[in-house]
């Protein structure tokens, strides 16, 4: 094979003779090789992406106990049971709640941080690295650390609250407080990352727009809200989409935040059990009900699809493309 | 620089605050990791390192029940393999999407973008059944093979290739008689190197951090990834918190190291990706 | 032309993939040597204290190599793994430990395990307390799933230094006299709290609840959440209700430190001496020592449990059918569960033998535990062991117990009042049982 390769004429092939001799091969090459190059992705995605999702649906139509030997078809029963399952709705509300109270402050803080970074700074890269460093830490590790920081009696956060004369907060067993604590974890990890994306978009804004605004007498705050923010809209929405996909699937943070018996419940009253956790609890220990767990997975998938579709529509309307690339998956 | 962009002392103050918040949990992780386990639960909480780091590390590695070293080695194997593979296949596919013309290209690209929205971790149940059938349960291929190439990687490479490589260059190589594979190897890959590096780093970190799927499929306590041995340490029958924190610190260290060495490139990659919208 | 390098590339990729598939498959029970030594994997949780026994066994059987997995693992982590291995048909060790609360669940699929009766286990019946032996049998009595390891006789562990600070007696017999009943225990607790030592009287209500439940059930109905026909009786078994009410009294009196059992704050509370007593099945002594650490040595002691006896925990060793070395594994199980093996485990980590011979052995009757101020653990835990009345546990015992204990926890944390808590407990238990 290599011999043939090396037999290639060192000069550019002239049209005519040359082209005819190697024409078949090269036509074959240009026509089919692209498919070969993209095939690995599609193959892998078919096997480990599409098939599981489809098969999840199939499983969800059965009474599928991991330990049982036969899996009778039950139709939509898992879904009807699920829709009447208060714990499911509870987990859905938790997921959405954590999502909202993490995403909104996260984007606002990122905007603020980007604005700070978008100035003539000394040690520019140093500051950028400092705000990005949470993003490169290990999620499970950080969740363990935050779990300790937010401890009821021995946690640093409650100790600080006590210093300033406030009552201790039950971070793990108060529903809203646990949402806040988990959101804090999520925001800690992602604010810097989003700030850098927003910063990049800010830097792409032509300066003369600000100069024009300044001539019109707008002060800095006004310029920020009337020039910067509107122009950042597509990027902000992009960040929101990424936050949506990650946020609705949240698992590691709340799972590792809790320790003790049955952390998969997210607290004694399932205060911070997300849908993914609920899926896990049903599909694996202690229930091993794959059918029911699959139904949870599908409803969660539907939820994400709806939210993503809304996002895409919004993006279209704003005239953006597919948006900037997605960051390291959550 | 115009006057508008000057940083005031207040800016620095705010940045110091933000940076402090960012760094503190990591700092504190090392603080606890360097103290004896009796420091656990102490109030006021210690915020300066103690002298037990070495002892804690050796206790952690001596702890035969945690399989921490195995976890580290496994995570290195998994993250490295996945990174190499993702970069390899993504640059191939990205090149094809950016520079080669073929029927269905745009439609297929849209599919790729759509897959980025598909929460594949929701497929854990059938994936688990699939792995059972393949006899990959408890074994590393279960966590390696499904992520050998990602839609994100393909898309990122496509974006970068589209902008970094001129069509003339490709055409010239073609005139030289290069087939697409040779073009990819000699022309495209060198030009993609910066993006490949960023993709590699991001992939490495994501894979290193992966938790849900390994948690579901790797049940053998003697064959965990590092995140799983952390979980085992922290959910133990009884817990030695300084060992747990030493574990978290060690699990974080490789990422921090990568970050310190390549921080500029990673930041560049994230920001460049953003403006290329 | 270019087809070739491309193909070569593909070949490289393929080779790389294959290579990683081969090399990455380290670990996990697949090694089958031809003539070499047989490797037996033993899956356990918590502290079984077998290390020394393995050494002995391997010395006597040079052709056997023993690898243990799971020491230190929480039961909540261990049992799902075992379940998944059994379901997958591979991955489980050659010898697996099964905790009493889960035994019925595993017995539901007896085909997963080797019938030890087919391998001469019947001769060993006399080596075990009768109820322990029976617990390993399937309902029809035809298959023996596992041989018993330990039982969980219950005592009350307490901090001498904190008792002293509160002006309470510190000597173990005197402490035992403080609380013949749980109501007396509560009264003592109130005295303790009134002394304002900065510590709570007990760690958490959940473990205490389970202790009271198992004791009450053992003394009355003989079953807890399920009756012996596997019907869920959480709301009709008086033992459950009685344990609930007593626990509510404890919570009401403000005795609990609310340190969620097994959580990181529980560990911190051990370290910071934040509670004075903890319900103490025999195996708990190892947990206390591990959590409280060497600095607390000699500050702990062990007294009688309030009420009358009781058993919490204890396990069986079984051999999954998927094991490739069943014969060797069965021999190992017989060795580990023999009187000698049980004594060895007790000396190492404190699990109380289920063998009457072992319980009578001077090594047990004369045993004391230095960490617990030299408490005579052999007599404290062993005394009642032979008269222990077993508590039957039904098919979804673990899931139901989780729900009820969560309800206890919500009341303890003030999220629910006792009435609401009870309603939750019953509703959620029924729901979990139906899943």
UniProtKB/TrEMBL annotation, chain A:
CDD domains: TM_PBP2. Residues 92-311 form the ABC transmembrane type-1 domain. Keywords: Cell membrane, Membrane, Transmembrane, Transmembrane helix, Transport. It comes from the Bacteria. Signal peptide: none annotated. InterPro entries: ABC_transporter_permease, MetI-like, MetI-like_sf. SUPFAM superfamilies: MalF N-terminal region-like (SSF160964), MetI-like (SSF161098). It is found in: Cell membrane. The keyword S-adenosyl-L-methionine does not apply. The chain crosses the membrane at residues 35-58, 88-117, 129-150, 231-251, 295-315. It is a multi-pass membrane protein. Residues 1-24 are annotated as: Disordered. The keyword Oxidoreductase does not apply. Its main location: membrane. Belongs to the binding-protein-dependent transport system permease family. This is Sugar ABC transporter permease. It comes from Micromonospora parastrephiae.
UniProtKB/TrEMBL annotation, chain B:
Residues 72-262 form the ABC transmembrane type-1 domain. It is found in: Cell membrane. Pfam families: BPD_transp_1 (PF00528). Its main location: membrane. InterPro entries: MetI-like, MetI-like_sf. It comes from the Bacteria. SUPFAM superfamilies: MetI-like (SSF161098). The keyword Transmembrane helix applies. PROSITE patterns: ABC_TM1. Keywords: Cell membrane, Membrane, Transmembrane, Transmembrane helix, Transport. Belongs to the binding-protein-dependent transport system permease family. This is Carbohydrate ABC transporter permease. It comes from Micromonospora parastrephiae. The lineage of its organism: Bacteria, Bacillati, Actinomycetota, Actinomycetes, Micromonosporales.
From TrEMBL, chain C:
SUPFAM superfamilies: Periplasmic binding protein-like II. InterPro entries: Bact_solute-bd_prot1, SBP. Residues 1-24 form the signal peptide. Keywords: Signal. Pfam families: SBP_bac_8. PANTHER family: ARABINOSE-BINDING PROTEIN-RELATED, SUGAR BINDING SECRETED PROTEIN. This is Extracellular solute-binding protein. It comes from Micromonospora parastrephiae. The lineage of its organism: Bacteria, Bacillati, Actinomycetota, Actinomycetes, Micromonosporales.
